[in-house]
Design goal:
Strand content: under 5%
Mean pLDDT: 90
CATH class: Mainly Alpha
Structural class: mainly alpha
Shape: globular
Low-confidence stretches: 538-544
Helix content: over 70%
Number of helices: 23
Length: 544
């Protein structure tokens, strides 16, 4: 089959999904600009700050994408390309898009607070604390892992470290230009993107050669500053400008497809069990998270994005739209290796890794665009740099989100009795960064990473559960969140049982205990939600 047909069909499906299913959710939740957003009603110039739609789309997309929609589909292609492709189409449309969109709307309707606050309102304070503790611990793991990944990348590719430091300075200048000097966004964007590529050029001219350990110390300082600095001056503009990296990569890859015209040689379906992954169910749905559905998205949407939403109707393009764009990226990632036969694909995956396989494949597409005349080596380096830039985006966003979760955990209803852990963002950030750094230097980070896939998808299931309870409280039909919620709980609970069994027989008792704790947490929250849904009288009559 032609790769062009595969990408075109996916894009057509996503366009119709955005217009019709996204529109259905908009009408169902009565999303309207007459509803004031927290970025205006609770403006503080630090976390609550309205952003122009293109800027927020860039920030949100850069935050949720990272390497996830690239790595997951390529690794899961070990099951064959058809299962991955079908899961991305269905997942992004009916599960991930719904999850991301409703998480933002629910947060906006609750003063820009997290999913934990929604659980507190409708399911009780203990449920909120359990969720926030789980979310914070998961984000600490993300911080530690991505700290190692970014430091290793900057150490092995010195030019990327230089370019990234220059990106940060450029972001500050962009933020000041747009928000303080009120320069038009379109002019600032053109100039900003031009300087973005200049930063890449300068990075190659003046590479900074430092060890991974020194880069870790620099990153610790950076993520602290990024977490406490007003969002408009660093995090938001940096993510917005960085998003052009991925847009350029995606557009170049898709256009290059039409000149390369690759045929798919990967096996449509292989075995239902693959070494190192496990059985197709649930492994496929845990491995391909970003691109279909990822719990991290709801933390971003209800953490930073909802606090910057200028108009409530922007939630559709920011939430649902970004998820569908990520779906296109996931399909492009799949096609980047699809021209290989199964044996050569598995060899490349084993020797080079998913990111390198993607970079090589997309570089070949870009190289075949006649007018650009870009060499394969240059295109490969650009693709690798784009992915590493998004790893840094994931790192600083996760730190800010962890700080939010930490502060909300210690909140009490009487605002006069709030502790310094809640009121002082510097204290909360210091504790969060300290835990992330401690895990980074512990040497145990990567040994804990296998639990992240299940934990991440469990976050998605719990977010859908909280949103379903909220919608049921509004006396609305909640089937469009209930069905995805049931599916995701089925996936994650099965994955946790499998993880427990694998680690017990492998004598890895730490991961076994974590798996059991997560399983128990899920069961407790499901039981609480079921009781509330029964109380609302909606278990039989879904629409009053």
């Amino acid at each position: 089959m032609s790769g062009i047909i595969i990408i075109l069909f996916a894009m057509i499906v996503f366009v119709f999904s955005y217009k019709y299913y996204g529109g259905y959710i908009t009408r169902k939740l009565s999303v309207a600009n007459s509803n004031e957003t927290p970025s205006h009603s609770m403006y503080d110039g630090v976390d609550y700050c309205p952003a122009k739609t293109p800027v927020l789309v860039g920030h949100h997309f850069a935050s949720i994408a990272g390497a996830g929609p690239i790595v997951g589909p390529i690794i899961a292609a070990s099951f064959g390309w058809i299962p991955v492709y079908v899961w991305v189409l269905i997942g992004a449309t009916f599960i991930g898009g719904v999850h991301d969109y409703t998480a933002i709307v629910a947060s906006v309707r609750h003063k820009g607070r997290s999913i934990g606050q929604i659980i507190d309102t409708y399911m009780g304070h203990n449920g909120k604390r359990l969720f926030l503790l789980f979310a914070w611990a998961t984000l600490i793991l993300v911080i530690a892992v991505f700290m190692l990944i970014v430091a290793s990348t900057f150490s092995s590719i010195p030019s990327s470290g230089t370019s990234s430091l220059l990106f940060i300075l450029l972001a500050v200048a962009f933020g000041m230009t747009v928000y303080r000097f009120k320069a038009p966004l379109w002019i600032s964007s053109i100039v900003g993107v031009a300087f973005l590529f200049l930063c890449i050029y300068l990075g190659n001219l003046f590479p900074i050669q430092l060890s991974s350990e020194i880069w870790i110390y620099i990153l610790i300082g950076y993520i602290f500053v990024a977490s406490v600095t007003p969002v408009w001056i660093l995090l938001q503009p940096r993510d917005y400008l960085n998003s052009f990296f991925l847009y350029a990569l995606m557009i170049g890859g898709i256009v290059g497809l039409f000149f390369t015209m690759p045929e798919v040689h990967l096996a449509p379906v292989t075995n239902f069990s693959v070494d190192k992954l496990g059985y197709l169910f649930p492994a496929l749905f845990v491995t391909v998270a970003c691109g279909a559905i990822s719990g991290f998205h709801s933390i971003v949407g209800s953490g930073t994005t909802s606090k910057q939403l200028d108009k409530e109707t922007d939630a559709k393009i920011v939430g649902y739209g970004s998820m569908l764009i990520e779906g296109v990226l996931a399909v492009l990632a799949l096609l980047s290796v699809a021209s290989l036969d199964q044996q050569h694909f598995l060899e490349l995956l084993e020797t080079k890794g998913a990111v390198a396989a993607f970079s090589i494949g997309v570089a070949n597409f870009i190289h075949n665009i006649p007018l650009l005349n870009i060499s394969t080596d240059v295109a490969t380096n650009f693709a690798a740099l784009a992915v590493s830039a998004f790893a840094l985006t994931t790192l600083d966003t996760a730190t800010r989100l962890a700080r939010f979760s930490f502060q909300e955990f210690f909140e009490v209803k009487n605002k006069k009795e709030q502790s310094i852990l809640v009121k002082n963002r510097y204290v909360a950030t210091t504790i969060t960064v300290a835990f992330g750094a401690a895990l980074t230097f512990s040497g145990q980070t990567m040994s804990l990473w296998p639990v992240f896939g299940s934990a991440n998808q469990l976050l998605a299931a719990i977010a859908l559960l909280a949103i379903t309870v909220w919608i049921s409280n509004l006396k609305l039909n909640y089937l469009f969140t209930l069905i995805p919620m049931i599916f995701m709980f089925t996936v994650t609970l099965t994955a946790l049982v499998s993880l427990f069994y694998t680690n017990i027989i492998g004598n890895n008792y730490i991961l076994s205990i974590i798996s059991i704790l997560l399983f128990v947490l899920a069961i407790i929250l499901v039981f609480q939600a079921y009781q509330i849904l029964r109380k609302n009288g909606n278990e039989v009559e879904l629409v009053k």
